[in-house]
Design goal:
Number of helices: 8
Strand content: under 5%
Low-confidence stretches: 96-117
Oligomer: single chain
Radius of gyration: 18 Å
Structural class: mainly alpha
Distance between the termini: 40 Å
Largest sheet: none
Shape: elongated
Mean pLDDT: 80
Length: 199
């Protein structure tokens, strides 16, 4: 039985009033959701509060979950919307960090593409590249920033991103392409690449 089927069984049990089933879902996704939210909110205490609020919203909305998407996709959408609403209420805009993900993370990140050589020059260059990527991502419009964050930093599929962002896959592809182009434009001077080369 796959993850999605296990989640669906837990959701069905939780929908029937089994609080332990929902607690298992929280335990399974708490760390992943917090990591996602930390791409938008820098303060760890605030991340914890927003994650808790997202789980509360998910619990309250559980009767409306029909299983048309994976539970984590549905939860990520709630988490992102909760984070955006929190930042708007605080009068802030979401920053994004392009840091190396830990061993449990899936999918390549922008920082995975940076060469790993332990010389002072390459370490400085790597730091400049990471800073440039962070600044480029932070400058993106919300839709592009969310799409590129979910794809490059969370490793989600285009289908999952489309479900989370509630838009067609073609729109997701376009947003990711535009975000990559904007980031590439900022990286070209550092990497000394031509206009037709992205990285």
């Amino acid at each position: 039985m796959g993850d999605r089927e296990v989640d669906q069984q837990l959701v069905e049990r939780a929908q029937q009033g089994d609080k332990r089933a929902f607690e298992l879902l929280v335990s399974k996704y708490q760390r992943k959701l917090a990591r996602l939210l930390s791409r938008f909110i820098r303060d760890p205490g605030e991340v914890e509060d927003v994650a808790q609020e997202a789980f509360i919203k998910a619990y309250r909305a559980l009767p409306t979950f029909r299983g048309e998407s994976a539970f984590y996709t549905w939860l990520y959408r709630i988490g992102i919307n909760t984070a955006k609403n929190y930042l708007v209420s605080m009068g802030r805009r979401a920053p994004v960090n392009a840091e190396v993900m830990d061993e449990e993370d899936e999918g390549p990140t922008l920082s995975d593409r940076i060469p790993d050589m332990n010389t002072p020059e390459t370490e400085l260059m790597n730091r400049q590249i990471v800073d440039t990527v962070n600044q480029a991502v932070e400058a993106l419009p919300d839709e592009l920033r969310t799409a590129i964050t979910l794809r490059e930093m969370e490793g989600l599929s285009y289908e999952d991103i489309a479900s989370i962002m509630d838009c067609p896959i073609g729109t997701v592809r376009s947003r990711i392409f535009r975000a990559r182009e904007a980031i590439a434009a900022q990286l070209r001077p550092l990497l000394d690449t031509g206009k037709n080369k992205r990285w």
